[in-house]
Design brief:
It contains seven helices and eight strands. The chain starts with a helix and ends with a strand. The longest helix is centred in the N-terminal third of the chain and has 30 residues. 44% of the residues lie in helices and 13% in strands.
């Protein structure tokens, strides 16, 4: 028994020492690996920080930016308070049709002004809007909340129009534009609640 202890003890000590040396050496390799980039800053998953440093390092060099096929785009780094930095933009101030993004403002106006349990009748005019695969129909009596869900999930033009028709389409669109102004969306303008008109416009900014 004592002989076993005499033999095993030093062996375990050597194994432990080797493991410790290996761990320290491995950690040193990690710290010297490509993860440690941009002037000694260790990059551990902070993609935005890495991109920002890359931009700073190459600000005086010719940088090949990725090709963006969208007509308009913008990428902004923000701390959600008072500091914003534009990383990339393309035609960001150009007014363009926003199509069914219009329905997001339609939803905001409904949430601000409607009782979602109120029943709304789908009229012939509402039923004549461009349909989706599974849509509401003429004569349907549906709660405002359900119409709102159908509009947002299925991008239903019929539901969007029916919601606006409940208080009058002109008044509804007026509320949409007022809300846009209240939110500081200076280049955003609406003419209907569906987004079918190309005159519903906004900018990437």
């Amino acid at each position: 028994m004592n002989l076993n202890r005499i033999i095993i003890g030093p062996i375990l000590s050597i194994v432990f020492l080797l493991f410790f040396v290996y761990s320290v050496f491995g950690l040193e390799l990690v710290l010297k690996s490509p993860l440690q980039i941009y002037e000694g800053e260790l990059f551990l998953g902070s993609a935005s920080g890495a991109i920002e440093n890359l931009v700073q390092e190459n600000q005086n060099k010719d940088i090949v930016l990725p090709e963006v096929y969208a007509s308009s785009a913008i990428s902004v780094k923000t701390n959600l308070s008072d500091t914003n930095r534009i990383l990339f933009e393309k035609n960001a101030s150009v007014r363009l049709p926003i199509a069914s993004l219009t329905k997001l403002m339609t939803a905001i106006v409904v949430l601000d002004n409607y009782n979602l349990s109120d029943t709304i009748n789908v009229s012939k005019i509402a039923d004549s809007q461009n349909p989706t695969k599974q849509d509401v129909g003429f004569g349907d009596k549906i709660s405002a909340g359900t119409l709102l869900s159908i509009m947002l999930v299925d991008s239903s033009n019929k539901s969007a129009y029916a919601l606006s028709e409940s208080i009058g389409t002109e008044k509804f669109v007026s509320l949409m534009n007022k809300k846009a102004k209240d939110l500081g969306l200076q280049d955003t303008f609406f003419v209907d609640s569906t987004g079918l008109s190309p005159n519903n416009v906004s900018t990437a900014n």
